[in-house]
Amino acid sequence: MTIRVGVLGSRGRMGSEVCRVVGEADDLELVATVDEGDDIASLSDADAQVVVDFTHPSSVADNVRFLVEHGIHGVVGTSGMTTEVLDDLRTRLDGAAGLGVMVVPNFGIGAVLMMRFAAQAARFYDSVEIVELHHPNKADAPSGTATRTAQLIGEARSAAGLGPGPDATTHDPDHARGATVDGVHVHAVRMAGLVAHQEVLLGSAGETLTIRHDSFDRASFMPGVLLAVRSVVSRPGLTIGLESVLDLD
Ligand SMILES: NC(=O)C1=CN([C@@H]2O[C@H](COP(=O)(O)OP(=O)(O)OC[C@H]3O[C@@H](n4cnc5c(N)ncnc54)[C@H](OP(=O)(O)O)[C@@H]3O)[C@@H](O)[C@H]2O)C=CC1
Ligand SMILES: O=C(O)C1=N[C@H](C(=O)O)C[C@H](O)C1
Q1: For an engineered disulfide with 122, which of 153, 215, 235, 237 has Cβ 3.0 to 4.6 Å away?
Q2: 32 pLDDT exceeds 90?
């Protein structure tokens, strides 16, 4: 059975790639494309079954609400879905039998593994910090991937009974120590020439471990996007990340 797919943010860096790979897939049909200024109703008018969102952190929550209200499955790559928005979405999906939304902080298979490895390593180290590095056109900081990684590390550290890492800083008027997400320092670099990269640095007496992932091309995200599009139709409710469809859970 062919899945009817719509794309939100279709003229953007990610959305345009998604349109291309969906168009090339034998089991998917691109039925609607929407970008800034277009009417979102064209997604429901075209009877899209699954819509992929790569828009902007300021619009993604409203977009997903539209999808749920119209009985359309969602695959969300856009960053900036807060805990409050996710909780609200979970509640809405509870009342929408059979409908699924996947919110995926990073579709790169290597990035999913990096997050998993970082969470596994977290309990063995006193210190952990994240450095995320992106192209300079990125709107938000820290990245969705870094935020998710920090949450997973924070959960692993609390489950292991670990408190904050050692840090004698008492004076940091310009926030040189970066943002703090779930107790983990996150540093954001924006630089011409980059696409999407992240290092997780872990340290204890006499050693460090660095886990690094690099997306050099947006092609790296496409297998994960296609996997989510094909999976979401049989995954009711809210799914966060690709881990469960990759059998990592
Ligand atoms: N999960 C993942 O693996 C990945 C996630 N991302 C995330 O995806 C998002 C998009 O990234 P990227 O493609 O680089 O960004 P772009 O700015 O290149 O693309 C976003 C597109 O969406 C359009 N847009 C903005 N608001 C709306 C709206 N309300 N309805 C329809 N279209 C809209 C923009 O139009 P205009 O330019 O006119 O505003 C633009 O064409 C970001 O949040 C980014 O972090 C990116 C890569 C991978
Ligand atoms: O804006 C990007 O480019 C990316 N955004 C996502 C994020 O915020 O983590 C995923 C990836 O890092 C690329």
Answers
A1: 153
A2: yes
| Among protein residues, the one whose CA lies closest to atom 29 of ligand 1 | 59
- In the three-class reduction of DSSP (H, G, I as helix; E, B as strand; rest coil), residue 11 is classed as coil
Binding residues for NAD(+): 9-14, 36, 77-79, 104-107
d(CA 101, CA 99): 7
Tell me the catalytic residues: 134, 138
Which residue, among 191, 179, 188, 174, has the nearest Cα to 151 in the 3D structure? 179
Regarding an ipTM greater than 0.90, the answer is yes
Two structure tokens written together for 231: 């999976």
Closest to 76 (Cα-Cα) out of 48, 57, 94: 57
Contacts of 168 (CB under 8 A, 6+ apart): none
Question: Could you say which of 3.40.630.30, 1.10.10.10, 3.40.190.170, 3.40.50.720 is the CATH number of the domain covering 3-103+219-245?
Answer: 3.40.50.720
The rounded distance, in Å, linking the Cα atoms of 213 and 180 is 21
Model confidence band, residue 27 (pLDDT cutoffs 50, 70, 90): very high
For residue 138, the ligand 2 atom closest to its alpha carbon is: 1
